[in-house]
Amino acid sequence: MMVTEELRDRCAPLGFAPLPEFAAEPPAGPQWVTAAGIATAGHPFLGKLLDARADEPPGPRAVHTLRTLLRELIFCTAGAVYLLDAAPELGPRGYAFRTDGADVTGRLLVVAREASVGPGRGTAVTVSSQRELDAWLAPGFVATVRPLVELVAARTRVGPRTLWSYVVDMVHFGMLNLARQLGRDRVAAWDRAGELAEQLFVAGLPRRSEPAMVRFGPEDEQVWGVRGACCLDFTDGAHGMCLTCPLLAPDDRARKWESADLAGPR
Fold it and tell me: Alpha-carbon distance 183 to 203, whole Å?
């Protein structure tokens, strides 16, 4: 079984597991555009995505667009590393978006190579440790993500600290959410995400700010993460500051924790 197939099977029962589709060959047809294609000078698609959110303030507009482009890719990477000690190889020409001309209607990861800690996963490249796995996948991850982050920053003038921190935050929250849903050790999942993030920094992802874990009580389930940089959702008039916002006062965060549904797996 391929790593991506195993990941899809493991995530199928979960309530939150945003994965892309997987394929062995690139898709064909005018409805598909790759991450590399979107980043090409003059390509119109990112402008159309941003125009669809023209009524939002710049911060939420930028972050929501980046989420549309990257959430599934980041969750797939974090999930494979955390659940399987394995990962697909990434690259900007191997991540494709199905579009209706104005919005993203699907995402597809073309899987040419995979790697796994230890043997036993078919044709996957064998690596000797989690650190070696992280170092193997990190350059492709950065090469795929960087052009899209930089393009969103340039088009919206939202600072790179917010956008790069969003990427690092989502690596951490991807693993943390899996730990929550599976009833696993949340701190261990957070630490594993930090190890992956270190290799992403080595591969060239800018180190702007990093998320932190906050403890709300003595039980293993009484912990949750706080973003490295605020996603600015509260500025759009529809969202207040969320539990993960680094701008939230500790007492306010504690009150939000008491009413949050985060005290164990769903």
Answer: 32
pTM for this model (two decimals): 0.94
Please classify residue 51 by burial: count the beta carbons closer than 10 Å to its beta carbon, then call 0-12 exposed, 13-18 middle and 19+ buried.
exposed
Q: 29 to each of 26, 96, 99, 136, 179, how far by Cα in Å?
A: 10, 11, 11, 31, 38
Residue 259 CA to residue 200 CA, distance in Å, equals 34
Those residues with Cβ within 8 angstroms of residue 52's Cβ, 6 or more apart along the chain or in another chain:
102, 103
pLDDT tens string 205-222: 999 899 999 999 998 889
Which secondary-structure segment (H or E) carries 97? strand 95-99
Q: 3-class SS at 38? A: helix
Adjacent-strand bridge partners of 46: none
